[in-house]
Structures are given as C-alpha cells and as structure tokens.
From TrEMBL, chain A:
GO BP term (any one): UMP biosynthetic process
Alphabetically ordered keywords of this record: Flavoprotein, FMN, Oxidoreductase, Pyrimidine biosynthesis
Top-level taxon of origin: Bacteria
Entry's Gene Ontology cellular component terms: cytoplasm
This protein's pathway: Pyrimidine metabolism; UMP biosynthesis via de novo pathway
Cofactor(s) this protein cannot do without: FMN
One Pfam assignment: DHO_dh
Protein name: Dihydroorotate dehydrogenase catalytic domain-containing protein
Amino acid sequence: MSPTTPGTRVAGLHLAEPVMLAAGCAGTGREAAAYAPLSTYGAVVSRTITLDARAGSRAPRVLESPAGLLHATGLPNPGLTAFCATELPALVQAGARVVVSVAGATPEEITQVVRGLARTSGVSAVELHLCAPDAAEAGVLAPRDGAGVSEAVSAAAGVLPPGVPLLAKLAPVLAGVAEHARAAAGAGAAAVVVGGAQPALLPDGRPAGLSGPAVRPQALRAVHAAATALAGTGVDVVGCGGVTVAADARALLDAGAAVVQVGSALLSDPTSAARLVTDLRAGRAPDDHT
Amino acid sequence: MHGPVHLTAEVLSGSRSGAFTQLTLAAPGVGERFRPGSFLAVSVGEPGERTRLARRALWIHQVRPLGGHATSVSVLVDPVGPGTRWLASRARGDRLEITGPLGGRVFALPKEPVSTLVVGEGVHAAPLFALAERLRERDCPVHLLLAAPDEAHLLSALEARRTARSVTVATLDGSVGTRAPAADLLPDLLRRTGAAVVYAAGSTPLLHAVARAAEDHGAWSQTALTLPTPCGTGLCLGCPVPVVGEDGVARTARVCAEGPVLRGDRVRWDDLVGAESAPRTGTGEERG
Ligand SMILES: Cc1cc2nc3c(=O)[nH]c(=O)nc-3n(C[C@H](O)[C@H](O)[C@H](O)COP(=O)(O)OP(=O)(O)OC[C@H]3O[C@@H](n4cnc5c(N)ncnc54)[C@H](O)[C@@H]3O)c2cc1C
Ligand SMILES: Cc1cc2nc3c(=O)[nH]c(=O)nc-3n(C[C@H](O)[C@H](O)[C@H](O)COP(=O)(O)O)c2cc1C
Ligand code: FES
C-alpha cells in the first residue's frame, strides 16, 4: 500500500500525490485548471519548452488509433523566455507544483535552456525530453544509445542547482530502456520517466508517437525493465503510458514506478487524473471504473 | 459561472430531421454557461469499452428551460463517419459523456444595431439560430443564408423566419431554394443587405469565401471554424489554425481554445488550405 498512500518521494521531492500530469497534455496549464485545481496533482509537467519559440507541425497533429492517440505536434511552445514570463508564473499561481519539460537540438542548447530555468523561481524539477517521436520534425535531440543519453543528461544536470532534480524522459522502447536508464542515472538524473509514446507513423507518413491504453502493456514492461536496471541506485522511475484508472496506476507502481503520469486520458476526459488521485487515496478496488 | 464542465448527460430525446439527428440532453451547468458559438466535446462509445479516444465537437444548438433552474441543451448530428454515426443512433435514456460549453472565442455581437448577414452550411447552421436571436435582441437586422448540398442536409429555416428579416436558401442540387454554391451568392447578398458584419459557420472553403467577400465590402466577418479538434479542451495543442495576431505577427492558434470563432481577417486562409492538402513527406528519420 505504501507507494499509493498520499505523500510520495520521487527524485528527492516530496509530492502530495503519486500522480503527475504528463508533458504536452495539459495545454498551457490554465485549460486543465478549469476542471480541478492544479494543486490536486503531485505535479504538473509543462509542455516541452525549447530555447526559441516553435510553431509546431502542420495538421493533423493528433489522430485517434484504436484505444490510442497518435501525435506529432512538433512541440509547439513559446520559447524559454516567454514561458518563464507568462506560462510558468501562471502555473505556479494556479497552485501547480511545476516540472518544466525541456528539449534541445544539441547538448549546448539543452544547457542553455536548463540554465535559464535554474535562474527562475517556481521550477520544482526539470524533465529532459529525450524521446520526441517526431524529433526530426521538431528539431530536438532523441539519442539512440546510452552515450547519447549520457551526454544530453550531463548537459542538463550539470547546470541545475541542488534541490532542483533532473528527470530524464526516455523512449519506452524495450531494447534500449535498461541501458538508457543506467546512462541517465550515471550522468546525474535523479529519476527517469519511462513510457513516453511508442514510435509510430501518421497515415501521411510522418513520424509520430502512439499513446494511450493501447501502449499500457508496453509501458508496464518498460517500467519494469528500468526499475530492475536501477535497483539499488537510488534513482527513481516515473511510470507513464496509458494510465486511465486507478488499476492502471497501481500496476505501474507495482512494477517499480514511484509515481505515474497521466497524458492521453486527460484528452478524452479532463477530469480523469483528478479522479485517479481520489481513487488512489481512497484505496478503491483496482478495477473500479464508474 | 465560468468555464466548462465535464459530465455524463442523459439523452432526453433523439429525433430525426432530414439527414440529421437532434439529441436533447439533460446537462446541468452547461446551458447556463452557453453563448452562441460555443460547443460540446463528446465521447464516442460506452464508458469502459471505448476505443475511439478523440472527442467529437458538436455545436450547442438550443438551450431550453427544463423546469426549476435546470436547462437542457440540444445538438444536431450529421452522421458522416463512425463517431457521428454512433452519436446519431443515441436514443432517450442513453448517456453521453460531454464537456462544455467549450470555446475561447464565440460570436462577438455588434455594439451598434447594424445589419448582419448570417451564413450557415449544412449542420453548421446549428449555432446560428441562437445567434440570430441575440442579434435581434440588439436590434440588429438579420439576413440568413442557409446552404447545403441538398434538402436533407438543410436545417429547417421555419423558426428562423420569425427572427430573420430575410432568409435565402441555396442547395447544390437545387432540391430547395436557389441552385448555387453559397459562396456565389455572397457578394449580391452583402450588397442588398448592407451588412456590416457577416457571421458564418461551415467548411473552410466557404469561410474563406465569406472572409474575402466581407473584406471586399468593407464588412467584418466572424467565422466559426470546423477543423478537427481532437480534445476540444485546449489540452492537446492538436488543432492548429494559422492566424495573424493583433500585432500583425503570424502565429498558430488553437481552434478549440482561441476559437472556434475567429475574425475572418485574422485567419491565414491560404496557409490553412495549403496545410490541409500538403503532400506526403515520406517517413523521415526513424528512431531506434
Ligand atoms: C467547433 C466544431 C463544431 C462542430 N459542430 C458539429 C455539429 O454541431 N454537428 C455535427 O454533426 N458535426 C459538427 N462538427 C464536425 C464533427 O465534429 C465531425 O464531423 C466529427 O468529429 C467527425 O467524426 P466521425 O468519427 O464521425 O468522422 P471521421 O471523419 O471518421 O473522424 C475521425 C476523426 O477526425 C476528426 N474529424 C474529421 N473530420 C472532422 C471535421 N470536419 N471537423 C471536426 N473533426 C473532424 C474526428 O473528430 C475524429 O477524431 C463540428 C466540428 C467542430 C470543430
Ligand atoms: C497530444 C500529445 C502531446 C504530447 N506532447 C508531449 C510533449 O510536448 N513532451 C513530452 O515529453 N511528451 C509529450 N507527449 C507524451 C506524453 O507526455 C506521455 O509521455 C505519453 O503520451 C504516454 O502517456 P499516456 O499514454 O498517458 O498519454 C504528448 C502526448 C500526447 C498524446
Ligand atoms: S483540440 Fe486539443 S487543443 Fe484544441
């Protein structure tokens, strides 16, 4: 029961709830706040921020696939400076514990973005997005091997002040997840986020990610693999992928995740993550779904 | 009361009208917040067995008192694909998961009692009757243009005839009204009505024509976009529309959160049409 009772430690942070809103699935934050105060969640991960503003990809960006969502958004965001001036304070104001998701085209660019955030108040943690399924179109790094992960994570971890941990978001691709997790841990990540989108293609042939219940079993396996690889290191695993109801969250927690993130479920029901928090607290039957 | 609500709504009635199904829903908190041009995001499929995870946007057509303080909302569904076909087959007693009213910008009403032209295409005429009522309350003469491919896809203009000073009907097959594409009738209608504002809801090509015709006549246009909105709530950033900001800078807005109603002269129509028909780009880089 311990992982699901209120109050969770992850990456050295104390979170009130073991549930975060996943990157790119909460709009600017304001839209999510219309359905539940952002303090409801353990943390809110921002959309992924890059040094310069990105307009994002052309339509279609998000399409449904059986029990899943395909997405290739191109990481639309206002850029570091505008984010720190407007969206970040608004998230904090709305009661969110903010984890800022970042990405960059090069390790140097990652350092620049993270350095900018290190100087800004209201940042509880930084999540380095290393698995954009549309990385080429979005123009960001998505390392394929442990060395690449290590280089990117070092570029970020080295410039963060103590007390602001780095989470490294890794591709949930089984062949590499253990290696990538160890590399991230070795380079200074305090936690790895495992279970981002699965690599896929849009019908028009552009690279995209597949998320939602369709990928839940793959996320479960990737989380298990990462937790096994990191056993004894003190580096936590954040589980993500297809979490919709309490049973899904419990499965990821049981597989070794310290907390879970909810993405796609918010897009079909913006109240789903708040209900998940309540259900986990109440220790409700895992298959409760009303 | 601000902001949308998410709830499971009971279907009070479902009735056919031509090709469309009108569903009336008991949706506490939704009708109270309604403004013409706002919409619902609706889930497809039974809870617990859902495999279609994008939501379907439906205009709020009518809000009616239900007794007490409660109101019902009704929507019109044009069954064009699997989601809307499922929705169109709902009946009394069924339940629908809905979020609404949604939309960051809805139809903006004129401050002066100016003449207005209101253009609706097919099922997208649904939000325009409530708009016409609000316009009339402000002493704005309303001239209505209803267009559809054929009679079955034309919203009945019966009740609008009480509100509107003139009603023009156009179908592509000539089954009722003038046989013409709506866009062809715009210049003449603008001239005859002296409209200072054109309100329109429909397909992108028609909205583009409206924006252009309005500009040619020195009128404002308010166009209600109907591009896909996968979540409808502003969360997924998946409904881009190219716009020009008030500062003249080109930007990408979200249809659901910064629209769905945008000033016609703010939309970069050429980029929008170009984006919709862009060629395949190949598979690009694949990650291992
Ligand atoms: C603001 C707004 C208001 C709308 N109001 C109404 C209404 O009152 N009545 C009505 O019948 N229809 C309305 N539509 C269109 C309706 O949402 C789509 O026809 C519907 O989503 C198609 O879903 P489908 O599964 O039947 O078809 P499919 O074409 O199979 O849809 C597959 C996917 O594409 C999306 N999609 C495809 N075409 C469209 C489109 N033209 N517009 C939006 N999404 C699309 C769907 O949401 C779904 O995710 C509205 C659209 C918008 C954006
Ligand atoms: C529409 C959409 C947009 C996303 N945008 C981002 C993003 O900007 N950055 C990021 O790290 N992950 C992004 N993701 C991935 C999610 O954060 C999450 O890792 C993934 O979807 C798996 O979780 P889920 O099944 O709960 O959605 C996005 C996912 C979706 C569906
Ligand atoms: S439809 Fe998701 S942001 Fe507009």
